[in-house]
Amino acid sequence: PKVLVCGDAQGNLDELFNRVATVNAKNGPFDMLLCAGEFFSSADVGGEDDDQPNYVDQDPLKEYVTGAKKAPLPTYFICGKEWGPKLDQTSSFQEVAKNIFFLGNHGIRELHGLRVGYLCGSYSMQASESLATMQAKSLVSQHDPEKPVDVLLSVQWPLGVNNNLQGQAAPDGGKGKMGTSVVTSVAKTLRPRYHFAGSEGIFYERAPYVNSSPSDREGAVKHITRFLGIARVGNPDKKQRWLYAANITPVTEMTMEALTTRPANTTASPYESAPAPTFQAGGDLRTTGGREGGGAAPQGAYSETICHVANLPYKVNEDTLMFAFAGFGDILRVHIARDRETKRARGFGFVEFKDKEAAKKAVAASGFDVGGRSARVSFAPERNDAGQKRSASDVSMDTEGNERKKKRFEMHPLMLRSQDCWFCLSSPKVEKHLVVSVGEEVYLALAKGPLVPEHVLILPIMHIPSGVQVPDTVWNEVEKYKECLMRCFQETKKCGMVMYERATNVRSGQSHCHFQVIPISKSTEAMASEHIEKCGNSLNIKFVQNPQWREEDDLDQYVVFDIPTQKSTLLHRVPQGSRHPLNFAREVVARLLGMPERADWKDCALSIEDEKRMAENFKKLFEPYDWSLKEET
């Protein structure tokens, strides 16, 4: 479900719902609005003369109760100190106005497919009152330890949520004076995948943390929690976000791999004491974890002296990197990540300092110029030496300790898939019903909002930003799929095809390499190259023939078209500092097909049912040509 979450509304419902309506119209539809923090303010309760106050007599719900106004989405709220005109601590789930629901004092309820835990009330920092303890225990007693809660809503922050930040700045300056121990105990036990809270008046997104297991058995599930403090509704500071959007897959629909995926910045649980990291010979970080002899450090641990440096120009070498960081302190070594065979730089590297103070200075200065680019500096996550192998018959991954030795291209954890990526196959955001074939390194999926029914994407399974960064082992599978598609279209549709990739900066800052493949008629194929060049010239976008485009040095932003049967590969290198039209490549193909009205994929969006039907049809069409099925058998 697509969910909006707001912070303390404090009775400011008109501004809240007006903003929600705008966001829903622009980016929706959303399924519901969840309200963390205080929903009412002290002005929303009846006066001393009102022995039996009711909704109609009091703002802010008055016009929503009468029907004069309506909440744009199903809205679910909790209460803290203020309970509004007709609610108290004994109130249960109820609809207080059309489309506006009070969740109740505490509990776990399924809302639009999500398991949502909630806790009302306002408690002292180290609460020991019997009522507070009783409410927390009652909520915890409703929880199945083997079934994570998708969302936890609380009025207050959990005390100690800023522990174990591993370099991320704490919003309270690290004093740990925010929140209450009551919410901490609930969050620690429920282990929600998302935890939203209000009451502090600021927006804060903590780095994800790994939950402790509900049991001590080997292999027990340890998923991550994302905690977000949401600011007060209507505050004028744009940095203090009071409305947050999330696309949350219910835990019941997630694979075990997706549930246990950990982003690169994952930390240990703030509610558990964490072993201190130590440095051993060879440059790898380890933690003893309380066991004699130590062992592999868990994902999420961060070095105190090793910095990861991203957004490096491909021309930067070790000497340049050493010189750029020398001002922060004594450097033990530097490393530029390179392809093992081609030796081409991959755009990131590492700097190891002699002491952690120098590393802190470097991280604090992130954004300074290195070779003409703004370097992004952060503490480096520890490496996980276990390789991963993908199954052609399943989208899950199995750990194989020897797999890494077979691969010439070793990925750092920051190159691995992201929980938030729309194209990483293990991400919960991937629409799996569009996937039509899965290889060892690459998969095939129908395009969202396709130009034609056979419009497909070729994508790496792992998170690789662009085609020039694709290692040869992965590129070989891209070529396999391209050849299979070409034969499929030629023999079943009597047509050719065009393939293109757009590798340009996106607002999210995160891109995943994908090649768009569209079948085109033979006559259209013959004129495709001329058409592409003509469209480019009209916007001063120059294309050149370059079949060896992946070997280009310093190729950062670009657009490449491939017309295989014409042996035509057209490359446009986007000049540094310029902006490339986001939809240019698709518009070119849409005009080539005589369908300019289909240039925007959003105008071509289909229902889930139609997408599923189209995917099944394509699977049947492509099955005789699918190399992955032949190798599997």
Features:
seven-stranded mixed beta sheet, 14 helices, alpha+beta, 633 residues
Instruction: Kindly report how far apart the N and C termini lie.
Output: 37 Å
Radius of gyration: 27 Å
Kindly report the average pLDDT value.
80
Which outline best applies?
A: globular
Strand line-up in the sheet with most strands:
24-25-26-28-27-30-31-29
Q: Which oligomeric form is depicted?
A: single chain
**Poorly predicted parts:** 44-57, 215-220, 273-300, 384-418
Structural class: alpha+beta
Number of strands: 31
How does this structure look, described?
The protein contains 14 helices and 31 strands. The longest helix has 21 residues, at 472-492. The protein has 633 residues and is α+β, with helices and mostly antiparallel strands. 40% of the residues are buried. The protein starts with a strand and ends with a helix. Helix 1 (13-27) links the parallel strand 1 (2-6) and strand 2 (32-35).
How does the SSE layout of this entry go?
Blueprint: E1 2-6, H1 13-27, E2 32-35, H2 62-66, E3 75-77, E4 94-97, E5 100-102, E6 106-111, E7 114-119, H3 130-141, E8 151-154, H4 181-190, E9 194-197, E10 204-205, E11 209-210, E12 224-229, E13 243-247, H5 256-260, E14 278-279, E15 285-286, E16 302-310, H6 318-325, E17 331-338, E18 345-353, H7 356-364, E19 369-370, E20 373-374, E21 376-381, E22 388-390, E23 397-399, H8 403-406, E24 435-438, E25 442-446, E26 456-460, H9 472-492, E27 496-503, E28 515-520, H10 522-526, H11 528-538, E29 544-545, E30 558-563, E31 568-573, H12 584-592, H13 608-622, H14 627-632
Parallel strand pairs: 1-2, 2-3, 3-5, 7-8, 8-9, 9-12
Antiparallel strand pairs: 1-13, 4-5, 6-7, 10-12, 11-12, 14-15, 16-18, 16-21, 17-18, 19-20, 22-23, 24-25, 25-26, 26-28, 27-28, 27-30, 29-31, 30-31
